[in-house]
Amino acid sequence: MIQEMKKLTFLVTNGEYEKFIANIRELGVIHVEELQQGATSDELQAGLDMAVRYKEALKALDFAAESYEPSATYMPQPADASKAVVLLDTVERLLKEENSVKHSIDATDDAIQQLEPFGEFSWDSIRQLEQSGYKPYFYAVNNKMYKAEWGEKYFATAINEINKKTYFVAFSNEDQEPDITAERLFLPDESLSVYQEKRKVLEEQLVSIHEQMLQVNAVDRASIEAGQVANENDIQLSKVHLSKEDIAGGAVKLMVGWTLKEKADGVVDYLEKEHIFYELEDPAFDDNVPIQIKNDKFSSLFEPILRMYSLPNYHDIDPLPFFAPFFMLFFGLCMGDMGYGLLILAASIAIIFAKPDLAKYGKLGALLGGMTCICGFITGTFFGIDLATVDWEFIKPMQPYFINDSMKDSFFGYSPMMVISVIIGLIQVLLGMTLAGCKAVKNYGFVYGVGKFSWVVALLSATLLFGFPLFGVEWSHPVQYVFYALIALSALGIFFLNNPNAYKKDSALGKALGVGSNIGGGIWATYGMSTGLLGDLLSYIRLFALGLTGGVLGSVFNQLAMEMSPDVPVVHELVMLIILLFGHGINFGLCMISSFVHPMRLTFVEYFKNADFEGNGKEYNPFQVKVK
Question: Fewer CB in a 10 Å sphere around the end CB: N or C, the chain?
Answer without folding.
Answer: C
